[in-house]
Amino acid sequence: MTKSKPLVRLTLALAGLAAAACLQPASPALAQSDEPGCRPDMAALRLPIQRANLAKDEVRLTFAGHATFLIETPGGVKVATDYNDYVRPQVTPDIATMNKAHSTHNSRNPDPAIKQVLPGWDPTGAGPAKHDVTMGDLRVRNVPTNIRSYSGSTDFDGNSIFVFEIGELCIAHLGHLHHPLEPGHLRALGRVDVVLFPVDGSYTLDQEGMLDVLKSLQARVMIPMHFFGGGTLNRFLARSQDLWPVERREQPVITVTKAGLPAKPTVIVLPGN
């Protein structure tokens, strides 16, 4: 069937907008390598979100794509993790956390309606970022880690693991983790019920190292992120299949409660990349 001229013009206009978004230059101070950035399949994950009220012990997580999750509390507080200019949830968060490693983990133009923007590094270079913010029924704090710099040397305190405490639940987002966790990191994190972790195995910590991190955390729910296509994810799942059960969900949304956590640590895969 031949497209009408108005439809053709609309299709071309949308394609042009998508291409322009992908061609935005990365900030030299923030983008550190050629990690895949804006891609059509990532942009396509900006799904419309319809919200229902949460019970007092429920927390909702929506995987927007790459390393960005929308976390919603029973009191209505919304957080976007690794908030950036490419992949964003469809609602404006109250709090946005960001990390330094690449432009797909931070924003040069955060929505001015966001109440708190928390960079996981100190932009002044004075030392580690220090955040401990309470908003409504949510507490957000960070545990600094290191990253590799442009030259391959260590950029100390360039990443943060952000910890979200909501009622009795503790959720940790590992960000762009580049190295194993040391005893000091584990003490600072405390008990973790849900962990959101990268599995690409190259830009972040290698997959075997990530398995060791997960073993040390012993979170009941482990949700992979930061994978570039199903092949990378499946390689990680092949490595982990003898350690933990895997549940694949059809929707990018999961609601968790402390009482409803699996009896044993479980990998839960949400669709995305």
From TrEMBL:
Top-level taxon of the source organism: Bacteria
Q: Where are the transmembrane segments?
A: none
Q: Which range is the signal sequence, renumbered to this chain?
A: 1-31
Cited SUPFAM superfamilies = Metallo-hydrolase/oxidoreductase
InterPro entries in the cross-refs: RibonucZ/Hydroxyglut_hydro
Which keywords appear in this protein's UniProt record, sorted alphabetically? Signal
**What is this protein called in UniProt?**
Zn-dependent hydrolase
Q: Which organism is it from?
A: Bosea vaviloviae
